[in-house]
Amino acid sequence: MLRGLGLGLLSTLAFGCVGEIVGGPVNTEEQTPEQLVAIKAWTDNAEPALRNACVSCHASQLNINFLPGEGLAMREALLAWAPAVVNLDAPSSSRILTKGPHSGPAFASDKIPLVLDWIQKEKIAAGSLEEEIILESPAVRPQLCTGGVPGDLTCPINTIPLDSMGLVGATITFVAQPTESALYLQRITLNPGPSGAYIEHPLFVTFPTGVEPKPDTLDRYFNVKLNLAAGAAPAMIQGGAAVFVGFSALDDIRIHFKAVDVFQAEDTGPGTDPGAAAGCKVLESFKANARGLLQTSCASCHANPANVASSAVSMIGLDSPDDLVLKQACDQILLRTNRQDIPNSSIFLAPAPTNANHPFRFADAGQLEAFRTPVSLWITDERDAP
Ligand code: HEC
Ligand code: HEC
User: Fold this and answer.
1) Which atom of ligand 1 is nearest to the CA of 95?
2) Is the peptide bond before 83 cis (omega within 30 degrees of 0)?
3) pLDDT tens column, 3-14
4) Domain limits, the chain
5) Is the Cβ atom of 140 under 6 angstroms away from ligand 1?
6) 161: left (phi over 0), alpha (psi -120 to 50) or beta
7) b/e burial code for range 307-338 (CB count within 10 A of at least 16 → b)
């Protein structure tokens, strides 16, 4: 069994019968005082805000109907929606607040505090349930990479052990570099221990001294599930690289999880970032928008088996006329993209003019943009492909 702060648990234990009481008075006997506070914030503020701006599409459209029904039934469905759009572990990172303009509008800035206030109250209500288990890794103060390749004395690999959560011998490792207002982590990797490893929804949190801990503002790994058998190769988490805005190298990092466990034998397949697992789906878009630019700027190293670059990211096959061979290159490159946050894909961060640790850099921001804009069209197509 998986352990964790499951919203499924919440919805069965705490909200058991509320689904039937649509918008009406609440049966106080079933609710803790904290839950009543959360329900009031929902009814008075959060639901009206969502109803005005979001329900027109999110009540019924397939795969995004996280606001079905009304009243408390809507609240229950929204809290239980997977992949989570409300994150009780990190309320302000909740995707309903951070989504921004998309096919629908961004939340109006005066509505965000109302909905955030509701989520914070839900967090307190959830905390008042005895069943909650917080899954939090030990703290690690990142050691910085100042040059060389990962593993060099000048480029230490940071290790967060997962033993305290029951995963003896398993770790998450990464290489860290500071940027002006952020921490750039690379090679974020899950290493299964002797029991294998299953993790769900890791959330990076920074702990500045004297103030509240700050979670990843994007909640970027909201849909990550990794399931590695004992002895399996370590797996990078969503391409392995990410920029954590507001994180400082001077502060500790911990990782929160929705679930941590030994390898789940009944789970289907290796389990990973779902988008990447399936590989490239839109090879035509890859050919039209990305292949030529990758060929020009990256292939001399990354498609050359004699160059270590090809073991970091293999682009071997990029120039092949055979679609099956080309797809292998495309699959490898796709693993280094971040479809939730496209500009922060590794393939754009690595060759950025400011990244001193990659052998090739675009000369300036304009050149990076000339690469990033067309290649992003392909990543967008991969993200939106059925
Ligand atoms: C005109 C239709 C429309 C409206 C209105 C709309 N959305 Fe969306 N929303 C979409 C579509 C289509 C998607 C799926 C594609 C995407 O992720 O951009 C989506 C996706 C999302 C997702 C990601 C869902 C997931 O599971 O990945 C979130 C979060 C979201 N919307 C929040 C909102 C919020 C908050 C509002 C109101 C302020 C809103 N949307 C209003 C059409 C809409
Ligand atoms: C001059 C050779 C060279 C060129 C050109 C080059 N790279 Fe690299 N790249 C490397 C090497 C070497 C590594 C492995 C470094 C290491 O082991 O960390 C690497 C690593 C990477 C990584 C992985 C970084 C990580 O987080 O582990 C990415 C992503 C990447 N390159 C993308 C690109 C892209 C995109 C281009 C083209 C725009 C490009 N590279 C062009 C040499 C090159």
Assistant:
1) 29
2) yes
3) 333 333 333 333
4) 7-127, 135-274, 278-384
5) no
6) beta
7) eebbebbbbbbbeeeeeeebbbbbbbbbbbbb
